Amino acid sequence: MTSFRPDKPFSAQGRERWSRVPIRVRRVLRRHWKQALRIRERFRFSEEVVHLLFAGAVGLIGGFVNLAFSRGTDSLIWLFLGHEGDPVEVAELLPPVQRVVVTTVGALVAGLILYLGLRFAPKRGGNLLEAVAVGDGRLSFRAGLVKTLSSLFSVVSGGSIGREGAITQLSAMLASQLGQLSTPLPYRLRLLTACGVAAGIAAPYNAPIGGAVFAAMIVLGNFSPTSFGPLVLSSAVACIVSRGFFGMEPLYQIPSIAVTPVLLLPLFVVLGLFAGVLGALFMKSLLGAEALFAKIRAPLFLRMSLGGMLVGLIATRFPEVWGNGYVAANRILDGHYVLIALLGLFFAKAIATLLTVGSGAVGGVFTPTLFLGTAAGSLFGTVLHHFGYLESLPTAAFALVGMGSMLSATTQSPFLAVIMIFEISLNYSLMPAVMLGCVVSAVVSRRLHPRSIYAETQRLHDVAVARAAPTASAMERSVGDLMRAPIPPVEEREPLRGIAKRFLSSSNNFLPVVDPELRLTGVVALQDLKEFLQTGDDYPAVIAYDVMRPPPRCLTPDLRLSDALALVLESELRNIPVVSSLDEMRLLGSVQRTELLSLYADAVARAGYQGGR
């Protein structure tokens, strides 16, 4: 059934009925109908506004997910272990034998949850980065809940992983579900999922900028102007919610440090080299640990139980390996450990993290990486002090630079590392030294190990191979995968005044023109109206049909992105129209030119990177 439009009825039957209506009534209906259309157009949200509204909702989700997971871990620790506080503080209160039992049983329970739960979850939509990088942004609700619950038990029982992994996974999954309820558009689902990642990182670390940068660089892989705004909004809202419950205190307490003299900067270059080597070795060791546990012919829950038992044995001597390491890292920053104890703690934490992640536990490696960087930097400074050098400069200065350098080495993103270190420490005096160490460590790490820690842990190497295959290449995707809602068109008989108002209320330089059947018949360019608008005269007889240009070259939903390159390059439109077919020309949607070009650039860069390996 066609919709009733008093100004242009579509069907012959509708025209016949319309002719029976008195002329005065028809005029009134036409006038009110046009007014209704103008009101609807004035209050219609643009695509950018819709994205921001969704991003704000996702930020609320991320903030409350952080609250729920934090309260959940505290409650389970008190319920099963009878103590309150950070996992490290609880481990120090337990006898050594109980530490082994807790980590073993906890890893067994976490493994059983994964082993049994994922059997009833769909195969697709479980990998967060893959869903955004090469998928349509859809994440499985069941898989997300199973992984979150498993990670919860791993964290509570002393697994050497960070809770940010589960918070990010759950926030992204809920953001994806929100998007699936409201729209099936793949580009919007991918953006909302990335917003969930931004909120999931920003809330636990109290780092709004860092969360947005992490989602842009690690998840989306670009800083598109259309996507970065929603990421920032999600991060900011998540932080505001989280601060309402946990306050604004930085996670890592850095002692007061004077401005670093310029003559000491070469030492931080050496520290960056040291951290770069350690970061590459750590990532290679993660691969080795995963391969080693994969050789064990046993179910996942038994492998995870074995890993938990070994972590428990390490914890009998070093209880600081439990959990993500916030408490122990702050003790290192306070100079709590001597050289031998610090060296032992570094290797203990590194091995515990390898055992936990390698055995299959679900969780984040972001916070353990910060711990290892803190310990490495403190070791560097302690050795200098041991030989009588720079005793006036506290080891916390080297620890902070080591923290950022290790993070930069594993993520291979100096910009992300610098932003995160600044936000989690709120210490600006050492930022030049941190920046120097981060740049050097990233270069060294990339030289020794070509892919970042997230590409390894999320199996993005397999995704890259799939992209290279003709059937799964990003350029083999269709225009319909990226299609957005069309730029609201104007009708052929739209007066000049109405067209001018449309241009004033939007940022578009071109407006599509359609006939009564919604077929694209041309476009109106803002520059073509200047000769009319500059005179100040009113031209009531001038309509869109009089000033429109011929229709531009358009895309179709089934057109492959690789075949659309020539058209995209020659187009001067920011939003290229998408029509049903080149014969019918019915307007269906639009595709942003910058988004398409960024996909092309990403594919070319990836092809060059793989060819150079």
Describe this structure in words.
The chain starts with 11 loop residues before the first helix and ends with a helix. The longest helix has 35 residues, at 47-81. It has 4 domains: 1-43, no CATH class; 47-246, Clc chloride channel (Orthogonal Bundle); 264-468, Clc chloride channel, CATH 1.10.3080.10; 477-602, CBS-domain (Roll), CATH 3.10.580.10. The protein has a 3-stranded mixed β-sheet. Helix 13 (300-315) runs antiparallel to helix 15 (339-358), helix 17 crosses helix 18 and helix 18 (414-425) packs antiparallel against helix 19 (431-448). It is built from 26 helices and 5 strands. With 613 residues, the protein is mostly helical.
Please identify the structural class as seen in this structure.
mainly alpha
CATH architect. name of the largest domain: Orthogonal Bundle
Please give the largest β-sheet.
3 strands, mixed
User: What proportion of the residues form beta strands (DSSP E)?
Assistant: under 5%
Please report the total strand number as a whole number: 5
Task: Kindly report the oligomeric state of this protein.
Answer: single chain
CATH class of the largest domain: Mainly Alpha
- For the record, give the distance between the C-alpha atoms at the N and C termini, rounded to a whole number: 58 Å
Low-confidence stretches: 1-11, 456-473, 608-613
Structural domains: how many: 4
Q: What's the gyration radius in Å? A: 29 Å
Shape designation? elongated
How many individual helices? 26
CATH superfamily of the largest domain: Clc chloride channel
CATH topology name of the largest domain, in short, is Clc chloride channel
- Helical percentage: 55-70%
User: Major sheet: order of its strands?
Assistant: 1-2-3
What is the residue-averaged pLDDT?
Answer: 81
